[in-house]
Specification:
The protein has 495 residues and is an alpha/beta fold. It folds into four domains: 139 residues, Rossmann fold (3-Layer(aba) Sandwich), CATH 3.40.50.300; 77 residues; 61 residues; 163 residues, tt1808, chain A (Alpha-Beta Complex). 34% of the residues lie in helices and 16% in strands. The strands form four sheets. It has a seven-stranded mixed sheet, sandwiched between helices. The longest helix is centred in the middle third of the chain and has 16 residues. It is elongated and about 95 Å long. The N terminus is likely disordered. InterPro entries: P-loop_NTPase (IPR027417). This is AAA-ATPase-like domain-containing protein. It comes from Phytophthora nicotianae (Potato buckeye rot agent).
Length: 495
Amino acid sequence: MSGQAPPPYLLLFEQIPRGYTQLPTLPRTALVEKLHNAIQSSRFVLLSAPSEYGKTTVMNLFILRYTAVHCIPISFYTPDVIANELVATHGLDVLQKSCQLPQDVGKDQLVVFMLDDAQSKFEDKSFWNSLIEALISATGECTLCHLGDTYTRERLSCKFTRDDFLLGNEEAIGLFYYPGIENDNRVPKQLESPELRDLIFRECNGHVGALTTVVKELCRVSRRGFKKSVEDVISFYKSDQLPKYIPCFSGWHMQPTPKLKSFLSKYLTGGLDCGPEWSGEDKECFTSLKAAGILTGSENSNIEFTCRLAERYYTKEIFPNRGVENPSSLHGLIRKVIGSMSMSFIERTITPTYEFPLTTNSFLAQVMTGIALWTLPSCPICPDVSPTFPHAAHRIGDEFDFYVGADLCWGIDVRLNGEETDIVEARLSTTEMNTSTLPVTDFVVVDIRGTKTGGLENIPRTPNRVTVVFKLTDFSRCRCVFGESEGSELIHLQW
């Protein structure tokens, strides 16, 4: 409506001329002002955030906003040309400690040399030592460097780090609704869901590149009609499919090499302890992953992924058959395990008689695969485990087909057609789980049945039992009774 004020997030955008940044872009007003203030008080300003945090964009925005400052942007991402030659073409000879400013520079005008992708010339130590230690003298110019985290000097008084470049909530909202894609800048209506927006914000954690990559992909699948509702988009975002369509969780993040995969594997499985005992290779890998914006922290303190989206992407990259999070309850795990079973696999195991096999081996393989798929790589899964070990006073036998360890401590037993389910459940219920040698916080007996009708007649409802009922000849779905619930749940299987 013509008389209405524009929505708050629309006010966050400025039209930026082509050649600087993609249309439209966030003005990042507070960050650009902070950078301007830093330049007034320091002759050398270091932008040391990892890749894809918007450092180049901020420098371009600075050029556009502060026209009274004479800015000289220089890209160091130029092969076969040494650093000093690149800056010398603009009148600055670092090694000779001389500076010939352009003729159009005013007498008292501030000159800022902007060194973009400076990490590309890190090997030129003499250049950097000369620049940092001697160049910034009384000539009145300022050098603004866009560096990765690898090259830092404690004696540099003015540094902008990752935290400075994180998106605030209002900026994230602006970028979410107007990501600047193709000719239609506003996101499709399927994405205008507060639930979806808040979910993405939590998982991107202020990371500019991650948020941009995700929103662009969701816009793509929505505009092409692949995801026609909010529920479809949310389901796609939460699925294992999303990481396959986002390049390394953000446009320019790194595809892990074998060494980096080994390092990430140790980290994801809990086998990497912070401290001085790190090997040289571990330190090198961590430095690379940190510079790429994948990990944050330090080798002597806690390290973690920069955002949840990064954790999801690299968990699936390193462990494609493991989950990206642990379920909140044992029943929740069983739901997911059943839903991930293969209907065609089950059908092949019982044809041509269409009677359940005398052993549970075929189902155990499906359950094992499902447990792995829905738990973290750091969560061990142990088959054939007893709540008490042989030296315990009252061993009750190998009752658990699977023991899910880590912080979960869950026991799972699988039975067919009610075979000994009452006996097993009674024995496990009377065992002092919390005082036994093996800690068990919860257990379940999964009773898998096949009937001609698929009905739920005479199904016992007890706290630690899940009954799964298939209709013989149709294994595409099943009815499940969880614990003492009077109702049932319909769960569809995978092909």
